[in-house]
Structure formats: C-alpha cells, structure tokens
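FW: tagging you since you asked about this chain on Friday. Here's the raw sequence from the shared folder, copied in full. Didn't touch anything.
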Amino acid sequence: MEELQIPFALKAAPYNLFSSNFEELTMRRILSIILFSAICLMEANANLPFLPSERPKKIALTFDACMTTGMLKRIESGTDPALYNAAIVDFLRSEKIAATFFITGLWAEKYPNVVKELAAEPLFEIGNHSFSHRGFVDNCFSLPNLPENEKESDIRKSQEILLRLTGKKATLFRFPGGCFSQSDQGLVKNYGLTVVGWSFASGDAFNPNTNAIVENVLEKARSGAIVVFHLSGGRYAPKSAEVLKAIVPELKKRGFEFVTVTALLKMNSQSMISGVMSPDEKVKINRYPSVRMK
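HL: got it, structure written out here
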C-alpha cells in the first residue's frame, strides 16, 4: 500500500505565536486541511456509479377536438368533411405515445364511439374543452362569444357528456382559445377541474406547411412543455398527422419521453408549470393564426 502523501502544511512545524507570519501560517494550514479532506472524499467515492444530474426530459402532446355550432352545421350540410383525423390516433397508438385530448361536448356528441375508444386506451386521457367552443372573454380571436349566464351550463354539459361516454370524470379543463378571467377559473374549479393551457402552439391550425410546423415544434421543445395540436384534420388542421410522424422520432432521439398532462403535473413539484395558465390572465400568446371557427 502506497504511503499517503501529507500536504506540507499539515506537517508539524514550529512557529512563533508572536510572529507576524502567524496569521498567514494558520490560513495555509486551514486551506490544506480542506484540500486534504476533499481528496480523501473523492478517493472514497471513486468507485460509486455515476448519477446523472439532469432530470429525464418529459413532454406532453395535447390535441384539441374543437367544434362550434357553425362547424357542426357545415359538417351536416356536407360543406366540411368529418372533423376527426384518425391518422393522428393511429400513429400515437402504433408508437405507444401518451397523449391528452381536450374534447368539446359538441364534438363528443358527434363522435361518441371515438370518444369511447380514446377513453379505453391506457396511453390516453381526456379533458373537458367546454361544450360549444365559444370564447369565455370578448375578442378571443374570432371565436363566437359565450354569454356570462351560459358559462356554467357550458362547462357542466360537456362534463356530463364526457362522463356518460367514458365512465370517467374529467379532471382537466382547457378554455377555448386559452382566454379566461379569474371568475371563469372559479367556475371551472367548482367542478374539480384543473385549468390547463400550453407552453407553445404547434402551429398546425389552418397551416398547410408541414416543414414550418415541424421546425417550430422542434425549436421550442423543452422538458416540461405542453404542446397543443388539433384533432380535427380537414382545412382546420390539415398536416397534424404528418407533423407527428416527423417530430416524434426526432424528439425520441433527443431523449424526450411522452407523458400525459396529468403525469406531467404529478412529476412537477410546483403548483404551476409551463402551460398551466395563471388565473387572472386573458392569455393571448402565439396560439394560432386568425382562427375562424364560428
């Protein structure tokens, strides 16, 4: 066994207590003791396994199933095709990607079997997105306005429809357009719902440029983020499925794990995380371009 080399300042050495160098010698010995202790600690831990300092990267993909009365009329008249892009769900299932779907009551009534299928998939969870997808505040993009006296019933009706179809009580709520007031949040909380927004929009709404959407998501992706897409397809979100097929493999390469919003909330120790909007904001950040959903 090799002889331990003791730093020079720790070796016994006479000194004069009344010398002008006393303070300097004392400090040198203290520093040497600290250095010696650090070296011993490093040697003791040399064979321990490496523990990464970074937390695993988690990201939540969310999909809004929007429908207003005007959109429903256009479907029933044949003006618009069905507002359900099945290719999105097929891809998520095939790749085993967890996801959260925010569904309006009107959409659920139009596609009840789809809602039941989504609820039966362990990878997925369903949140409330209001009944009629009307704006809870004035000038929420171009969404039709929801009168004050209809807000509570709009939340409740959608909640009841989702419970009837899925057998599960929704615990998450996303305001149409992400616009709300403090009193609106109070209405939602009365139903035991947590308000969830998003960290950034994918940009898939009304956007035919697949590459632009892919670049936007990959540039902004970060751990803890909630990303919003749309489940409608058609002219409302024509490239969502193609975008997913491009971003998912790349995000996996970067070390991201896909989780539901509920899982993300449970993993985060803070009361608010990216994408959960503050109660007194009428949030109008980069959502999507001039949305026409009347």
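FW: The mean pLDDT is 82.
HL: agreed, and The radius of gyration is 28 Å.
FW: great, closing this out.
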